[in-house]
Design brief:
single chain, mainly alpha, 76% helix
């Protein structure tokens, strides 16, 4: 009886908190904010500035768009999808959870793809500049440019990335709704 609510809780936890560690870490590294640590109230831990910002913004977006109602309806509909008193098949639960976790990491990587692309180009240019002028402290000089480029990419990609996350959240939580 308690297995299904625990499964739903783990599903939501991994969707919101495990979907973006890869993406948020890449984002923080390439945007120049990897060492700017803040307290993350959602995880009760410290995290990079973009990671905390995305976590809080994602949760806020879930509440603003009333997507949390899908979770509540999923809990109610779980009693019609999974008959109380019977033991669900753990193989199906494990398979669903493994597919979901793989999709979550893929989404986190896809959200961070623009930062990876621009970061590779930027660091390649810095490497060439360091070879051309070895006396110049390239990474010290380039940090403000890196932060500016990171903020510019965040400004361009965050609205689309958050809508992508919200659509992914709603489609995955919709699996638990009764037809």
């Amino acid at each position: 009886m308690l297995i299904i609510p625990i499964l739903l809780r783990e599903h939501v936890k991994h969707l919101h908190h495990e979907i973006n560690p890869l993406g948020r870490t890449i984002l923080g590294f390439y945007a120049g904010f990897a060492n700017a640590l803040l307290f993350n109230p959602l995880l009760s831990d410290t995290g990079g500035l973009p990671a905390v910002f995305l976590s809080i913004l994602g949760l806020l977006l879930i509440f603003i768009t009333d997507a949390h109602h899908i979770m509540l309806m999923g809990v109610v509909d779980s009693y019609s999808l999974f008959v109380p008193g019977t033991v669900p098949e753990f193989g199906d639960i494990a398979d669903t959870f493994a597919k979901f976790l793989a999709q979550s990491f893929a989404l986190g990587f896809q959200i961070a793809t623009p930062f990876l692309f621009v970061g590779i180009l930027f660091y390649t240019g810095l490497g060439l500049l360091a070879r051309l002028n070895p006396q110049l402290p390239v990474f010290f000089v380039a940090l403000p440019v890196q932060i500016w480029i990171g903020l510019f990419i965040m400004m361009i990609t965050f609205p689309a990335a958050l809508m992508w996350f919200l659509n992914y959240f709603e489609s995955n939580m919709g699996r638990f709704l009764a037809p």
